[in-house]
């Protein structure tokens, strides 16, 4: 009888130890999975992609890239780039950060990305702080170029995308157009006129000027100004934008236009 009890106790002990071993293994595996899930490299799509070479650039602009693409030097590729949609904190966003900045967010260096073409597919995409050398096609709303330059032509796939874009903080050296539409350069009446001197001011307020007239400093003229009617996205509109703003559209500086008289001829003038 004692022998039988001893055998039964041994069987129970073996079973108990085996069960404990399985629990330990499960806990260990779960811990490893948690560590793996928490890891996120530069091109995971969660945060950022840092560009070191052409391969990292092509990965970064894909759907697997970080929402913000960080450049630390000039970069050139012979490939046509497609910047896929991305997301930041639950909101649609992509950003080509062509600059470095100090702890106060002042730009300390600016870079150039050169490619034959960049197609923007995602909403709220920014080319910021540096230069894209090549042509750009925008296929989404909310495009902007804060402190950025497009050294080439900018084409919007629709009038809706053009109307939602904000080009006031940057520069496009080439033509701005809508696919299937007319050319819309800085003084065509379709988009904007940037004031650099008195001559550009007089051109801008005429019927040939952009619907939005952008000032980057105080301006004075002895001429009496006549602000002709204009149009934005099919609606009557003119705007004297006597300010600059940051990427969140907060006003950062304000300017004064001085003239003996301003005659406003168009509807919905601001």
Automatic annotation (TrEMBL):
<feature type="region of interest" description="Disordered">
    <location>
        <begin position="23"/>
        <end position="48"/>
    </location>
</feature>
<keyword id="KW-0732">Signal</keyword>
<feature type="compositionally biased region" description="Acidic residues">
    <location>
        <begin position="23"/>
        <end position="41"/>
    </location>
</feature>
<protein>
    <recommendedName>
        <fullName>Polymer-forming protein</fullName>
    </recommendedName>
</protein>
<feature type="signal peptide">
    <location>
        <begin position="1"/>
        <end position="19"/>
    </location>
</feature>
């Amino acid at each position: 009888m004692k022998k039988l009890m001893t055998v039964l106790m041994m069987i129970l002990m073996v079973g108990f130890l085996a069960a404990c071993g399985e629990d330990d293994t499960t806990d260990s595996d779960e811990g490893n999975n948690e560590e793996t899930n928490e890891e996120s490299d530069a091109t995971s799509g969660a945060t950022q992609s840092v560009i070191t070479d052409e391969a990292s650039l092509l990965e970064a602009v894909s759907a697997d890239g970080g929402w913000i693409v960080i450049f630390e030097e000039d970069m050139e590729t012979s490939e046509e780039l497609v910047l896929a949609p991305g997301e930041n904190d639950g909101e649609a966003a992509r950003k080509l950060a062509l600059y470095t900045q100090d702890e106060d967010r002042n730009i300390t260096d600016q870079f150039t990305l050169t490619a034959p073409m960049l197609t923007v597919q995602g909403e709220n995409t920014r080319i910021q702080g540096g230069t894209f050398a090549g042509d750009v096609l925008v296929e989404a709303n909310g495009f902007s170029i804060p402190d950025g330059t497009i050294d080439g032509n900018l084409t919007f796939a629709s009038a809706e995308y053009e109307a939602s874009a904000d080009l006031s903080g940057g520069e496009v050296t080439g033509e701005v157009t809508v696919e299937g539409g007319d050319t819309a350069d800085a003084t065509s009446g379709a988009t904007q006129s940037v004031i650099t001197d008195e001559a550009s001011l007089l051109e801008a307020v005429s019927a040939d000027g952009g619907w939005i007239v952008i000032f980057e400093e105080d301006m004075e003229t002895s001429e009496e100004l006549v602000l002709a009617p204009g149009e934005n996205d099919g609606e009557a509109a003119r705007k004297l934008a006597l300010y600059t703003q940051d990427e969140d559209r907060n006003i950062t500086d304000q300017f004064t236009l001085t003239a003996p008289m301003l005659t406003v001829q168009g509807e919905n003038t601001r």
